[in-house]
Design brief:
Elements lengths: L1 E7 L2 E9 L2 E6 L23 H7 L6 H11 L6 H8 L7 E4 L13 E2 L2 H13 L22 E6 L2 E4 L8 E5 L2 H16 L7 E6 L2 E7 L3 E2 L2 E2 L2 E3 H5 L9 H10 L13 E6 L2 E6 L2
Antiparallel strand pairs: 1-2, 1-4, 2-3, 5-7, 6-7, 6-8, 8-10, 9-10, 11-12, 13-14, 14-15
């Protein structure tokens, strides 16, 4: 049996346990009233038998070759979500951090590691040339991002960039791009705002000669993590499972909101932050 502990700040939310292929989540007494996911309610059964595993799966890169590289670079035995997130789960989407250490909040905080601008440019160039190279192993990063496209997370503080840790959450997501592609995505975000849908603040920034789409994280507020999840997590779906229109409609009804016009902004990913719906560049 494997165990992975979920924390929100210094509060233990609960424990993921895996036996064979089955993953379950049990809430801790200290979890509080807010569920870790709409698919994993505080009382009653999960939305689906695979909801806990799907919730973890959506925190990781969708491409298997990226997961294999992450496992190889850390000497991990497999690419199971529980295995990878035990090593890369400090800084994730939403408010939750994951660790095999049950005392994670009480460990000695590491000193933040700065990412100078030339290093960021080098990281962008490497990711552009090698799409599986999401991480810079010199910094021993312990963060994970979902989606198909290569990207990395950094923390911006006092005008400088730093690699994120459990104690120092990331604030921005950077992805190599071209000016033409960035123009299209920024236009899509403007369209979302025109339809009164909150959209993450995103801009085209050049580091050295490397253009990047820099998105302010939708799941951070004042440098702190906020509780959020993707629609797939809320519906208990794996990254490769289709989101059915009926499921999305029912989910928005549960939140008391009208469903946004997805067809008009197909390059946008919809995400849940508390009881709000926000949009971000498709990851």
């Amino acid at each position: 049996m494997r165990e992975l502990y979920a924390f929100a700040g210094r509060r233990r939310m609960g424990t993921f346990r895996q036996v064979g292929d089955q993953v379950d989540f049990t809430y801790a007494e200290t979890a509080g009233p807010t569920p870790i996911s709409l698919s994993l309610p505080r009382t009653g059964p999960a939305l689906s038998p695979g909801a806990a595993r799907a919730w973890l799966d959506n925190l990781l890169p969708a491409r298997e070759e990226v997961r294999r590289r992450w496992a190889r670079e850390r000497g991990l035995p497999d690419t199971e979500p529980m295995t990878l997130l035990a090593s890369y789960g400090d800084d994730l989407a939403g408010a939750v951090s994951l660790s095999a250490d049950p005392d994670l909040p009480w460990r000695r905080a590491p000193h933040p590691v700065e990412a100078p601008l030339p290093e960021i440019a080098t990281r962008l160039a490497a990711l552009r040339n090698q799409p599986t190279s999401w991480l810079d192993q010199r910094a021993r990063p312990r963060f994970s991002l979902g989606g198909h496209r290569g990207k990395f997370a950094l923390r911006r503080a006092s005008g400088k960039w730093f690699w994120p840790t459990y104690e120092h959450p990331s604030t921005h997501i950077l992805r190599p791009t071209t000016p033409e592609a960035a123009t299209q995505q920024l236009a899509d975000l403007d369209l979302a705002r025109a339809r009164e849908i909150p959209a993450t603040r995103t801009e085209l920034v050049t580091f050295g000669a490397q253009p990047a789409l820099v998105a302010e994280r939708w799941d951070r507020l004042g440098g702190r993590r906020i509780h959020a999840e993707t629609i797939r997590q809320a519906l208990g779906l794996r990254p490769d499972e289709d989101v059915e229109p009926g499921g999305v409609r029912d989910l928005f009804l549960r939140l008391g909101q009208a469903q946004p016009p997805v067809d008009d902004i197909g390059r946008i990913a919809f995400l849940l932050a508390g009881d709000r719906v926000v949009v971000a560049p498709r990851r």
